Amino acid sequence: MKAPSHRPFSELQLALEPARGELVRAFVREASLAEDVPASVASLMANDTAQAWLAICTQGSHLDRARVAVMRSHRDVKTRILLQGHSRISNIAASLAGRIRCGAGIACRAHGIDGWEISLHRSLTGNGEPHVSAVEAPLSTPAPPAAARDYVIDLPQKSDAAAIARCFLEVYGHHYVHSEVFSPHRYWEKVESGELIPVVARDDQGEVIGHVALEREPGALVAERGEAVVLPAYRGHHLLERMTERLREEAPKRGLHGVYAEPLTIHTFSQRNDERAGMPVCAVLLGANPESFRPKGVACPTAGQRQSYLRTFRFVQQPAARTIYAPAPYREMLLKIYAGLGVTASVAAPSAVIARESRTGIKVNDRGYGMIHFERIGPNVAIELSQALRDVQGLGASSMQLSGPVGDPGLPLLTDAARTLGFFFCGLGPAFAEGADIFLLQLLSEPLDTGKLQLFTDIAKELVAFIDRDRSAAAGLSGVRRI
């Protein structure tokens, strides 16, 4: 089965003129409503796109033509503006800063001689606090496990959609973050498109009593495990682990290379589940979400600072051996992470042959997390990185992630430039770039005490300790006081 994609349900082609802004606004709103996007979100997207259109018009000319496409996935609605030309991303990002309303995600990407694109997106799942998974959190009044029965783990049928909705309704009420589970039609549409790969648990009467799914981003070869629920009366039988194992068997059939999860660090419940599922930690995402992004009614040791996540991962196909251009300060830790993932990795000798120039993309999501990705790394890397950092900060990023391919000979150059700006270790993204691995660094603009993080495994604790040391070392190199 091919990878899912956002489906462009409408596209508009027109001249790049400020006077067309109202047409763009109306088009985006009506196209969003046609795909059942809530009216409030459709209006916000329309306003965002109109503002972006005006910003882009200041960089182009009326002789240019642009394409505006509106797309929807199970997670968000997106508007993409594509334009031929050679305008620098930095000019566009600077024009966008301050124009887009809070809550929108922004991405800018150059395509070389093919032009460039601006993407705007808004979440359809809300930006409020996350739910503690019903299969993770301890019950305030623990329900005794149901008597041992022959539970069945299998793939759901279309006729199961209503029963799945009832499971989420019983556990979460109407406030579950992925609202499509309450609409059998919308839920099954996501399954058929390949965006959602679910499995269910059944009791001995064939009734659905649990659910977990892989959520797949467009074009990705990895998918995130989520949408997990087990009815209270049936907990204590390791149904989550059994469903996760079934997903591991199903994922390769859908062309996936791996499965990941991003457990909270305000408690260790989900981290324990990932450990049992054979998903070791490969990265620590410090400050990835706002301080308020935490479950209500649950003790929060990390209150007062942006919330952090771990990233856990498991290959679902036998991984090939890797040859990596590991920067010297991170060589040992990268090899240790690869070993934990069951990957044979060797360090390549330094190479003088690198790309002629760098190619980058930037993104700031609706939670203030900025991402800078180097698709390729050239000798101008320091200049490109400095500009990209100013761009994401100008677009409102509070925490930032930097990534580059581990197989790019220019990676040590990128790392050296990044450390002088204060970037420090984050981890590894296995198969995250169209099947290729990416090296991750990060940077904070607000204080964050890693001593508050709740960590379950020894490798997670070791990784955070390494990050702390590198954070201090990078602060010394950059001359910036550690915050």
Structure description:
With 483 residues, the protein is of the alpha+beta class. The protein folds into 3 domains: 1-124, 2-Layer Sandwich (Heat Shock Protein 90); 131-256, Gcn5-related N-acetyltransferase (GNAT) (Aminopeptidase, 3-Layer(aba) Sandwich); 258-483, no CATH class. Helix content is 29%, strand content 28%. It has 11 helices and 19 strands. The protein has helices spanning 21-34, 39-57, 89-96, 161-172, 184-193, 239-250, 269-276, 331-340, 381-394, 411-420, 458-478, and strands at 7-15, 65-72, 76-83, 105-110, 116-123, 152-154, 196-202, 208-215, 222-230, 258-261, 281-289, 307-315, 322-324, 345-347, 359-364, 369-376, 399-405, 424-433, 436-444. The strands form 3 sheets. A 10-stranded mixed sheet has the order 1-2-3-5-4-15-16-17-19-18. Strands 6-7-8-9-10-12-11 form a 7-stranded mixed sheet, with helices on both faces. Strand 16 (369-376), helix 9 (381-394) and strand 17 form a beta-alpha-beta unit. The longest helix is centred in the last third of the chain and has 21 residues, at 458-478. The protein is globular and about 65 Å long. The termini are far apart.
Observed structural traits:
alpha+beta; 19 strands; 11 helices; 3 domains; seven-stranded mixed sheet; single chain; 483 residues; Aminopeptidase
